[in-house]
Amino acid sequence: MSEARLQLLTRAGCHLCEVAAETVTRLGAEAGLTPQLVDVDAEDELRTEYGDRVPVVLLDGREHSYFTVDVDRLRRDLGTA
């Protein structure tokens, strides 16, 4: 998986993932970023590590939040707060 600055690990059919994608896309745009959406089921390693916790927000390759987007923290960490 190539690392974009802002990534969202998702899976098809996940309602929380759909909500998180909208939020991360909006917050990314505020910071001039286009988040990379990654399906955890596309890679065995990702599914093993993150599959039971999607959606997962990664910032600079590190886990930032999971299940829900921590909007205030993400804005702060992106420098848009």
Layout of helices and strands, plus pairs?
Elements lengths: L5 E5 L4 H16 L5 E4 L4 H7 L5 E4 L2 E5 L4 H8 L3
Parallel strand pairs: 1-2
Antiparallel strand pairs: 1-3, 3-4
**Strand fraction:** 15-25%
User: Helix/strand-derived class?
Assistant: alpha+beta
**What's the helical proportion of residues?**
25-40%
Number of helices: 3
Give the SSE order as H and E letters. Answer: EHEHEEH
Unreliable parts: none
Overall number of strands: 4
Mean pLDDT: 94
Global shape: globular
Euclidean distance between termini CA atoms: 29 Å
Radius of gyration (CA) equals 12 Å
Task: Summarize the main sheet.
Answer: 4 strands, mixed
State the strand order across the main sheet. 2-1-3-4
How would you characterize this protein structure?
The chain has 81 residues and is an alpha+beta fold. The protein is 38% helix and 22% strand. The chain is built from three helices and four strands; from the N terminus they run βαβαββα. A four-stranded mixed β-sheet has the order 2-1-3-4, with helices on one face. A hairpin with a 2-residue loop joins strand 3 (56-59) and strand 4. Helix 1 packs parallel to helix 3. It is globular and about 35 Å long. The termini are far apart.
